[in-house]
Fold TonB-dependent receptor.
Amino acid sequence: MKFKEKALAGELKRVFSALALCSAAAHAVAQDAAPGAAAAAGAGSDYEEVGLSVVKVTAQKREELLQDVPIPINVVGGDAIRDKQISASTDVERLAPGLSAQGATSRTGKPRWFLRGIGTNDPNSNHEGPLAIYVDEVVVGYQSLQSFPLFDLDRVEVLQGPQGTLWGKNNTGGAIHFISKQPGFRTDGYAKLGVGSYGSRIAEAAFGGAIREDVLAGRASVYVEKRDGWAKNILLDEKGPRLDDVNGRFQVLARFNDNVDALFSWTTRNVETNNVPSYAVGGLPNPGSDVTLTAPGGALTQGGGSYVPPYGDDPGPKSDFFGGEDYNRSKRDSLSARINWQLGDYTLTSITALNLSDDKSLSLVGVPLDTTLNRTSSRGDGSSRQFTQELRLTSPKDRDLSWLVGAYYYRLQIDTGSRSARFQSGTTREQYSESSLDQFSTSAALFGNVNYKFTDKVSLGVGARYTRETKEITLTSLTATDTAGNANIVNFVNQNGWFLPGGVTGSGVAGVAPLSLSAKQENHRFTWDVTPQYRFSDNVLGYARIATGFRSGGFNQSISNGQIIETSPERLIDYELGLKTSWLDGRLVANGALYHYDIKDLQLNIQRAYLNTSTNTYTTSAAGSSDGTVTGFELSVDAQATRDWHVAASLGLLRSEYKNFTYNIGSGGPFDASGNEFYRTPRTSFRLDTDYTFRFASGRLILGTDWTYRSKIYFNATVQDDPVQELPGYWKGNVRATWQAPNRAWQLTAFVNNVTDVDHAFLRQIYNPNTRSYPASFDAPRTWGLQATVKF
């Protein structure tokens, strides 16, 4: 046995040789600095009371120190979330390297999560994304629910790479885990009030403590946010995007006896957004009108004059826009019960959860007559019902052999319906359509993880999971479109009442039979990971990791060319080397990782203009797949340089490439996009977050700032030679100043987000020949605010 242990240790030493050289160099620097630092600490210098907080995580379903977990993780603490105005789930991208979540300015939209190049640009929300989102260990499977406010949190954990064994819903890109502050038996809480630009108002509070000593504890948390918006709707003379977001979380912790405890939680949310700006550069005149287009993106001439959209041909986030009455309302509720039962040295955990949502939306016409620029109207409703159950049995962690086994079940039902109309002048129709979606998904899995400690330095972790997933979908579609010699077969009583009973007249709807199609998929997959570790010293951990993950196949949420488009399961293998180090008595933490992804059947949303000669219309999107590779390096540093100066920084470098990327759109193709870079994936990303504390007898002044840099990205997987569909590299920063009471019982904060007022689109869709326009959406402009927080 000793011989085998020595052989294994030797192999691991060779694997980590390159990383060990870096470690040795850093160690030498630390040794040179340590005597002076120790002397300074003894003399009561700036190093007094210096040290980074000890961070604990549950990335491997156990409570462990961050630096002891052999996978790349970034953690954002609850205090940072509260004090740095990280108010929404998508804002976490500010403090986590390589992560982006563009596309959810309205707070009810579907975020476009990307991590290390893995993400989805697909507008279809019925697909599970490759990056899994969890709240208190419960997956948020429906992507439309993944943008939500953050309040009263303990921390957020960002896990890079596939989490194909321990986490409930399989994924290829990683996982983000939002962990709420849980009830305790000590009374505590806080209250925060804030006001800011564009009519922003925030009220947030939490209070918890013992209900019955050592037996029952509770915690209540509330969050309310209102905002008027920054862009003017000329038609309604109102600002947008408007937001009204009301949230509550109520938890009860019960200790039934020394061996059994349970945490019950209910989270509820009512959110409404409206007046969301929409910009389409260019537009197509109506058939038969006297409106002609001078050039794509240029002015529309009408009756010898000209019509130019209020934002011209270069809109920005604060540009005026035309929009009719609209709203997007959502009601969401989550119920969960987590029970821990101590069976001697072992722990049996059960997590049961039910997530419900109901949505309604309406968008009425709000543009001038005789143009088709955004001249559409739509109404929709939808609901989702998700149930999850997880059981796991865990052995003690402090033994040479530790393990975890479990079972998981997931069920999601989605129902949506929509109607839309596109108008000519008055109430005659250019197009009318109805569609509905009913999708039912289940996932069942058995999983386990074993870690064996060969010596004090050498250990090996192995994980495995077997998953069976099924999906069934029924799509119904009805479309009545103008054709030669059969114009205006559908009429509307009036433009803004077409969706009401009796609002549609004519033979179009009655004369067009709805098309209804169904499809089913079953996927079985075995995923695994192997993670050898070598501890060079108490403060330096090296690891290698081979991990697999998969994302189940699915269906487009609309019928295309008379068929349901299906996607195959996406598979990814991650080869990774990592090093976690801590120096200078815990004042400096530096972690690095080198990784390579090999991906098969990468699910993509394809956008390319193609003329469908059978209907004489253009098709611009369809589902497709490709192989691909991503190779990258990440380095993160967290340092308490002095007692008063804290700095954290990270650097991400990667290269991505689509391979074997051929596809068809409608009856067109095959087209080939092999060699293109992954969309929404910067080659270089950088993050800097720092603050400095000035100490006074009456309190503390804390000045802080955080900045991110992202190099150029492509919005499109297939079209990468159109500058309009690219976003150049940019820096984006936020600044804040906080006055804090000596006992930290209260504080006042002034902040400016997007301080340089960076103006860029987070979405620039492909040029649409049907409307001769480039639809675009924008991130928020510069905002400022004042916040007061009281802790008790």
